[in-house]
Each structure stands twice: as C-alpha cells, then as structure tokens.
Amino acid sequence: MFIEMKKQVLNFGIGKAELWFRYDIQALYNIENSGFDPFDIFKQRDNPKAVRCFLENGLADWYKGVDDNNSLDEYVNRLMSMEGFQTELIAYIQAAIMLSLPNQRGSSKEKREKFSILSLMTACVDVMRMPMSEFMSSTIREASDRWERYAVAMGYRKPVETFKEFDDE
C-alpha cells in the first residue's frame, strides 16, 4: 500500500565498535514488562539491571544483522564493563528512544494526552490491516507516520499544513 519506510536507527561508535540502537514497539514493551519505565532512562541510570535491559532491547535488531560467534549477552557485558562509557551509553539510549517517538505536530496538551499505543495499534492493525508482527517491529514514530499518511490518503484527516518562513532581507 505504501512504500516501506527506512528503519529509524541511531548509529554510534563505542571504542572501535560500530553499533546502532532501535527501540521498536516490541522493545519498549519488553522494557516495560521488565519493570522499567521505557521513556525515562535517566531515572534508572544508576540501576545496572535497567541499563542492561535497555541495552539488550535496543541492540536486538543490530545483533540480528551481526554475523559473529558472540552472543548478544557478551556484547552487552562488554559495553557495561567499559569504564567511562556509562554516561555516553545513557545519552545514546535516550537519543534512540526520542528518535522512536512521534514528532509532536502542534503543542496542544489535549492532543498529547489523547495519544495512546492502543489507539495507534487499532488504527494500524484493524483499519490499515497491518500485520501485528509488522506493527510490533515498527517504532512508534514509523507507525504513527504510516497512519497519518493513510488517514490523509483515505480522507479521514486533512493534511497537516506546513508553513515556510521566508527572509525578505
């Protein structure tokens, strides 16, 4: 129906390693089921179990593409044992989570409060007929962008107006 969007990932390097984080809906679900708030890593940065959970779930997609004999556990152990990288890793995790969240079009408090994963899932899975596996492997931003495009194409919603500022000087 729509052209597949490029997966949104946060690339970074730690030491000589080139890695990337991606927090799709499944990863956020797994983090929450582990008892941690998936949207506030800074509250949990001193908790090694929380940092480990965020690392494992953020690196899961990256690890699928690595052709290596090491397990994901070994990568996570190495990252957690590196001195001085804890603060840097927390910043990367936070940036990757922010990348997975939708852009707030309009600053209306009412609009932000209406957003829920359940309503997004209903829109994508029930209305758009997106397979549940595809929904769970999308970031919240990707799923909401797909829904916005679909809603505009089907006439459910008017296109978002964009304004360009011009400098007359």
Q: What features would you describe in this structure?
A:
The protein is mostly helical. The protein has 2 domains: 10-100, no CATH class; 103-169, no CATH class. The chain has helices spanning 25-33, 48-64, 72-81, 86-100, 109-114, 117-127, 132-136, 140-153, and strands at residues 10-14, 17-21. It has a two-stranded antiparallel ribbon. α6 crosses α8. The radius of gyration is 18 Å and the shape is globular. The model has no long low-confidence stretch (mean pLDDT 81).
Topology:
Blueprint: E1 10-14, E2 17-21, H1 25-33, H2 48-64, H3 72-81, H4 86-100, H5 109-114, H6 117-127, H7 132-136, H8 140-153
Antiparallel strand pairs: 1-2
Helix pairs in contact: 1-2, 2-3, 6-8
Number of domains: 2
Q: What fraction of residues sit in β-strands?
A: 5-15%
β-strand number: 2
What is the radius of gyration?
18 Å
Spatially, the strands of the biggest sheet line up as 1-2
Q: What is the tally of helical segments?
A: 8
Could you describe the largest sheet, including whether it forms a barrel?
Answer: 2 strands, antiparallel
**N-to-C series of helices and strands:** EEHHHHHHHH
In terms of structural class, how would the helical and strand content be classed? mainly alpha
| Poorly predicted spans | none
Assign a percent range to the helix content. 40-55%
Overall mean confidence score, pLDDT:
81
Overall shape: globular
Distance between the termini: 44 Å
